[in-house]
Prior knowledge:
Elements: H1 2-13, E1 17-21, H2 26-37, E2 42-46, H3 51-61, E3 68-71, E4 78-81, H4 83-91
Parallel strand pairs: 1-2
Antiparallel strand pairs: 1-3, 3-4
Helix pairs in contact: 1-3
Amino acid sequence: MSEESVLSDAANAGTQFLLYTGNFCGYCTAAKRLLDGKSLTYTELNFDAGEAKRGEVVAATGHRTVPVVLDLRKGQPMFIGGFTELQSYLSKGN
């Protein structure tokens, strides 16, 4: 079920990126600012609204911290990682 949940979130996002975030998360804020600064659109889903979602995303990606970033621009959702990985990914022209 976990991968299906993430794929469903991605299909319903309608944006270039999907971010799973948490409250009081400095790296989540930094990721949103980075995407905003590059005029890239994103959908934010906050884990604090439902703990079950966090478990599904961890099971699907193996990533235990927030943010969890997926690139949706190429038709198939691509897991990027967290803020540091997003920063590196975008600096390479992706």
